[in-house]
Amino acid sequence: MAVTLSESAAKHVANFIAKRGKGFGLRLAVRTSGCSGMAYKLEFADMANEEDIIFESYGMKVLVDPKSLPYIDGTELDYTKEGLNEGFKFNNPNVKDECGCGESFNV
């Protein structure tokens, strides 16, 4: 079981944490939402929770709660810039369908 960051995503997270002046890592979770059933939730974490599962990629930590892990196991989080758009992209092998806007998914 693993959740990873691409090198680009790890650099973006590291830069954001440095600008912020504090941070332990990036918390990745799923929540019930959207037209397809589930949505990703990202936030910067200042510390790990007792139940968190911690993965590390390119020196950056990714924290995942045990309830979210089955839905995102094997996911690589990338950070891309395409023209004027930039942001995180989720490469999740568990996704069976996504909504048209890309905001939600189901497994």
What is the compact description of this entry?
This protein is an alpha/beta fold. Helices cover 17% and strands 45% of the residues.
Strand order of the largest sheet: 3-2-5-4
- First and last CA, distance: 16 Å
Shape: globular
**Number of helical regions:** 2
Number of strands: 9
- Helix content estimate: 10-25%
Question: Into which percentage range does the β-strand content fall?
Answer: 35-45%
Explain the overall architecture.
The mean pLDDT is 88. A hairpin with a 6-residue loop joins strand 8 (97-98) and strand 9. The protein is an alpha/beta fold. It contains 2 helices and 9 strands; from the N terminus they run βαββββαββββ. The strands form 3 sheets. Strands 3-2-5-4 form a 4-stranded mixed sheet. It has helices at 7-20, 69-72, and strands at 4-5, 25-33, 37-45, 53-57, 60-64, 76-82, 85-91, 97-98, 105-106.
